[in-house]
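During the reporting period the student researcher (J.K.) took over the structure-prediction task from the postdoctoral fellow and processed the backlog of single-chain submissions. One of the processed entries is reproduced below for the supervisory committee.
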Amino acid sequence: MSGLFGEDGNLEGIQTMGIVNSLKTGNIVLDMTFAMIIPMVLGIVLGWVANIQKRLGEINWMIHFQKKNVLHTRIIRHSKMTSTYSTTDLDGDSQNEILIKAIQLYLDHKEILKLKTAELELRQIGEEEKKNNYYYYYDNDNSTTLADTLSKYKIVKKPMKNIWLSLGKHGEGKEEHEVSLCVEERKEDVNDKDNSQTRQRYDLALRFESEGKDAIDDFIDQAY
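J.K. obtained the following structure tokens:
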């Protein structure tokens, strides 16, 4: 290109004159018009070409040809309807509520999440958590002393809603991959036409994502 074009990407004067001479018609007016217009048109066209070349050179073409990583997702949902007098699990998924609580307790106990901001909740440690020996042990479930009552509760740090958090790498051997968690929550007031009482629907979901197909399942197995 340097043999035909100058440093600014335009045709050299000799090449321009050669093009103009090749287009001579014998008509002085037309020849003068061509002599003025052709260099300007060529300059604009070559400027566009140089700009396109520059932009194409800035594109990382490897990104478009690299294999895109596939994200694997697992979602644990629990929904319930609450009113002044009762709480009803929807879709029969009360087991999911137990699983969600177990994961929250596991995250708090193992201090997996380094939370700068967290929600605190006083959580009762029930029968279903006894099998995990890192929870509380109490000799007499029927005891009514203050100490025994307090021993059945634990303050749990819960992550804030709608924020992605890293749970570290999980899986086996070379198949370990980063696992991320986002807690999603939605509350909605429900007004029944046949009932003047206002109820509230509460939806909670733990959304896990990872590039490893077994990493999330491995974490959940550890937590429960």
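The committee noted the following: The mean pLDDT is 76.
J.K. will present the remaining backlog at the next meeting.
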